[in-house]
Amino acid sequence: MLKLDSKIPGGPLEQKWETHKFQMKLVNPANKRKYSVIVVGTGLAGASASASLAELGYEVKTFTIHDSPRRAHSIAAQGGINAAKNYTNDGDSVYRLFYDTIKGGDFRAREANVYRLAEVSNSIIDQCVAQGVPFARDYGGLLDNRSFGGSQVSRTFYARGQTGQQLLIGAYQAMMRQVGLGTIKLFNRREMLDLVTVDGAARGIITRNLVTGAIESHVADAVILATGGYGNVFFLSTNAKACNGTAVWKAYKKGAGFGNPCFTQIHPTCIPVSGHYQSKLTLMSESLRNDGRVWVPKKVGETRPPAEIPEEDRDYYLERVYPSFGNLAPRDVSSRQAKFACDAGRGVGQSKMAVYLDFKDAIKRLGKAKIEERYGNLFQMYEKITDENPYEVPMRIFPAVHYTMGGLWVDYNLMSTVPGLHVLGEANFSDHGANRLGASALMQGLADGYFVIPYTIGDYLVGNKLPKIDASHEAFRAAEAEAKARTQKLLSIKGSQTVDEMHMKLGKLMWDHVGMSRNEAGLKKALIEIPKLRDQFWQDIRIPGEGMELNQELEKAGRVADFLELGELMAHDALHRTESCGGHFREESQTEDNEAKRDDENFAYAGVWEYKGQGKAPELNKEQLVFERIHLATRSYK
Amino acid sequence: MSDKSINLTLKIWRQKNANEIGHFETHPVKDISTDMSFLEMFDLLNLHIIKAGGVPIAFDSDCREGICGMCSMTINGNPHGPDRETATCQLHMRRFSDGDTIVVEPFRAKAFPVLKDLCTDRSSLDRMIAAGGFVSVNTGSAQDGNALPVPKQDSDLAMDAAACIGCGACVAACKNASAMLFVSAKVSHLGLLPQGAVEKERRVLNMVAQMDKEKFGSCTNTGACEAACPKAIKMENIARMNRGFFSASLTRR
Ligand SMILES: Cc1cc2nc3c(=O)[nH]c(=O)nc-3n(C[C@H](O)[C@H](O)[C@H](O)COP(=O)(O)OP(=O)(O)OC[C@H]3O[C@@H](n4cnc5c(N)ncnc54)[C@H](O)[C@@H]3O)c2cc1C
Ligand code: SF4
Ligand code: FES
After folding, report:
1. Rounded CA gap, A180 and A100, in Å?
2. A569 CB within 6 A, ligand 1
3. Domain annotation covers residue A409
4. Which residues of chain B have a CB within 8 Å of the CB of A542?
5. Which residues pair with A268 in a beta bridge?
6. Pocket around ligand 2: residues whose beta carbon is below 6 Å from it?
7. Which domains does chain B have, with CATH numbers?
8. Are residues A387 and A484 in the same domain?
9. What CATH number did the domain enclosing A306 receive?
């Protein structure tokens, strides 16, 4: 059994974080440099944490797979970041942002964490502006806002269609400043292959130098994982190619509980799949739904081009089904409706697996120049990929895997069930419940890194007397030997299938059975097929080249081997949760009009899985969610 | 969508590691769908190489949508290929014709040593940022985001410069391997905003000093960088930076 103590502070919701900050132990400034912290990942979460901890005086070692920390996948976020500034005077508040996030997550997140997230959101914007993030401004020189799905106020700050890029550059520059000052030691092109625990506490990591192939040990007093999401288990997703689940998976196998692994988000607006060799899917930011209208033909088997389909033959189904949110209905809801339309034979394009996102009316209303200013780079990206001009013909879009709400379980201090192992950003399970609202991941990553971990890690470091160790410790020797053996094993198979071929097969299994809509028979099938595929992998994979060199097939193979285990855990979790909630849609649990039917009586908990050893079934632990402030309500966007 | 198939001949740079001498290797590729991206064509080629028992071609890429700056191929002499404002990963095969021969090399510059095949080490760009490409503000010490209005035009110009993806194509395109476009984009991005203007003199001096240390060449205003840049970073940034550098050098203490 895992000990799941959420460590939620007492007192009223609004005062929990303040009280907690006061009660936590402090590390005196002169002592901070005596503590070392490893940060894995340099996305928004990892870069902001590295910079902030180094500024405080800790000795920080930061790791990234990429050649430069600025390439982390956060760079690709387009739409924006939420904050409860209420600059638009439209009724926003910390409480409303909190409420929208909890409701958007279909009441499967922890109240106290989400409240804190909303509470620090405003400081994030201030910090980013001070760093020189060029957010969009109006003619008066003040910050501009737009709306995002699942909310009726304008609270999203943005930098053209490149918000993630600009926020990451801000955090990256803050971090590089510390690298220049010598307070952060940066290890690029390094992949974490294992977590090392000593006396039960996280004390370091094993990495592979991706240029030389060397397996190395790194020791510290605490370890922070900010390694992003595992959406690439589906092979095709909007995630960058290097996104992976290896770090969190290895931590899981060393005792960290895995929270809600089946909660994945399928984003409604992506460019549809076009060919067998397609390597990834491209997101079209949700912000487009501010001005674009989603529709399909009313008639099954419609063959006319979109321009020739008159208004009366079009079904603007989101506006029809959800009159109060319309095209801005939340992601899970919008994705499912697109699937229903295509399943009913009303899909568009060559594959019939797409719906239209049409800007005709917005261009008429606002003019092409305004649309270009708002979405120019997205339109350009669309045209490059599809060879179609979205100013003239409606975009074709279809849902795609985008984000994983699930991740390593953490307490209020962002610490996992392994003492000393902290998990930030998309890698943890914390704030988004069963569905994440748009523009909230960037907020969470930066909240975790800038404003939460700098406080909570001190409490851990002072509160625990850690023995002095170095890389010669037997735990490190053993973990290194294991990592080397696994590399050797992978290289020695010399089978016939490539890593990508195997990955595609896994992706198809996951999409068909653990994807947008799930049922018992499909999930049971996945639980039989995934282990079979895994056996095939370990018998038939072909990895050319050697271990002690730059070897990209070997890198990918290690990640896919882990996905082949993680995918199975996702299926277990999805099978056990017989309710529908947020992005997790169980066909057995729906209302008459096909909306997700939650079961609060039996499932108002986070499902936290515990590793029980090779070949053994994982064990389910539950963190019961206690709602002190809000009433569980049916989530309606009608 | 066009969806035709074409056949091509690829001449690709192979180099086992930083210490060995490289060479070109010829690979015919068949039935390439014109809807494929350039990198998907490489995926397919690598699949065939692996199946045939060979060692695949190492190349960098990640986001595959033109924003991370990881992809880096010089295609027929052009960093990121023939299209303007397009990163390698956004280049599609519909840009090529049946029967074409395409030469693919890594980004070449003294400051970007080749690691293997088409992968290079561009951490020199990071070290220039570490030398001064930031605003010195610690977490928690910021005032309200709207306390200081910023004229929309300045903010827009700063954003234009901040769009740089740090790919290094400008360096690879330059006959002197100068990093002026990259450095000037950062100097402009931060210097145009009041938050960054405070330390603009220190910034430009430190970044330029690091640039020299990293063995980037000097700028002779040929404009090859601007033509190669996937994000349309303008030469006017270089002019702005030169002015700033000049005045900072005069008043330096
Ligand atoms: C296309 C797209 C658009 C998006 N748009 C938005 C948006 O508009 N608004 C919003 O709020 N959210 C958006 N999101 C979601 C958001 O971008 C991500 O959830 C968030 O950026 C994740 O940040 P992170 O710091 O947790 O992880 P990442 O940015 O993914 O960083 C992970 C880091 O970990 C490193 N790493 C991973 N594994 C290892 C390992 N084993 N060893 C060493 N290093 C490792 C990587 O190198 C990288 O540095 C979008 C996501 C996508 C895919
Ligand atoms: S200036 Fe352009 S070419 Fe140079 S690094 Fe930036 S984006 Fe790349
Ligand atoms: S792969 Fe990211 S810019 Fe090309």
Report:
1. 41
2. no
3. no
4. 50
5. none
6. B 164-170, 181-182, 185, 228-231, 233
7. 5-115 (3.10.20.30), 123-136+150-252 (1.10.1060.10)
8. no
9. 3.90.700.10
For residue A246, give the ligand 1 atom closest to its CA: 41
Searching chain B, which residue's CA lies closest to the CA of residue A384? B90
DSSP-assigned letters across all residues of B96-109: S-TT-EEEEE----
- Ligand nearest to the backbone CA of B224: 2
Q: Is B92 close to A544, i.e. CB distance below 8 A?
A: no
pTM: 0.97
CB of A77 shorter than 6 A to ligand 1: yes
Residue A582 lies in a domain: yes
Q: Does the distance separating the beta carbons of A75 and B63 come in below 8 Å?
A: yes
Query: Which atom in ligand 3 lies closest to the alpha carbon of residue B230?
Result: 3
In this prediction the ipTM stands at 0.98
| Pocket lining: A430 vs ligand 1, CB cutoff 6 Å | no
Cβ atoms of B47 and B58 closer than 8 Å? no
**For B131-177, how does the pLDDT look when each residue is reduced to its tens digit (9 = 90+)?**
999 999 999 999 999 999 999 999 999 999 999 999 999 999 999 99
Clarify whether residues A393 and A483 are in a common domain. no
Long-range residue pairs from A609-618, CB within 8 A, at least 24 positions apart, any chain: A609/A252, A609/A257, A609/A258, A609/A259, A609/A261, A609/A569, A609/A572, A609/A573, A610/A1, A610/A2, A610/A257, A611/A252, A611/A253, A611/A255, A617/A572, A618/A569, A618/A572
Q: Is A521 within the bounds of a domain?
A: yes
Which amino acids of A are annotated catalytic? Answer: 331
Q: What is the CATH number of the domain that holds A578?
A: 1.20.58.100
Proximal ligand: closest to the CA of B89: 3
Contact list, A380 vs chain B (CB under 8 Å): 85
Task: Kindly state if the Cβ of A39 falls inside 6 Å of ligand 1.
Answer: no
Instruction: For a ligand 1 pocket test, name from A73, A232, A429 the mutation site with the most ligand atoms within 8 angstroms of its C-beta.
Output: A73
- Please report the atom of ligand 3 found closest to the CA of residue B69: 3
Q: Could you say which of A356, A376, A402 is where a domain stops?
A: A402
- CB within 8 Å of A559: residues ≥ 6 apart: A232, A244, A245, A246
Question: How many CA atoms within 13 Å lie on the side-chain side of A537?
Answer: 25
What's the total number of domains in chain A? 2
pLDDT tens-digit map of A464-514: 999 999 999 999 999 999 999 999 999 999 999 999 999 999 999 999 999
How many CB atoms neighbour CB A484 within 10 A? 15
Domain that holds residue A344: 267-402
